Amino acid sequence: MKKIILALSVLAISMSATAQKAKIYTAKEYMRDGDVKKALIAINEATTSESTKADGDAWFTRGEIYEQLAETDATALSESTKSYMKVLEVKPNYNKDLIDNKLIRIVQKSYNAGVTAYAGDPG
Q: What pTM was computed for the model?
């Protein structure tokens, strides 16, 4: 009886991990379809789950989603930056050149938003 319970427990845990990995894939699919709001919901579920919160790909995807959101909400750049930095925290051997390029792009967007705000240009 103990072996059956143990086997069922292992199965349940592995199914949960697989489900959260699927959330990362789902978030990417929503992004491809242009549905940023649904992508954000899916990726936030993945990054808060015990089974995938240490997954570099989940945090990278979250960074991309928030970067996309920054087109209409400049405050999303901060979350995007945090997500890209978290990638390197949870997976130090992640593609650092890719992360560097993403962070440089965020700096440029932040600079442009600051210049626009300073100039008083609403657009």
A: 0.77
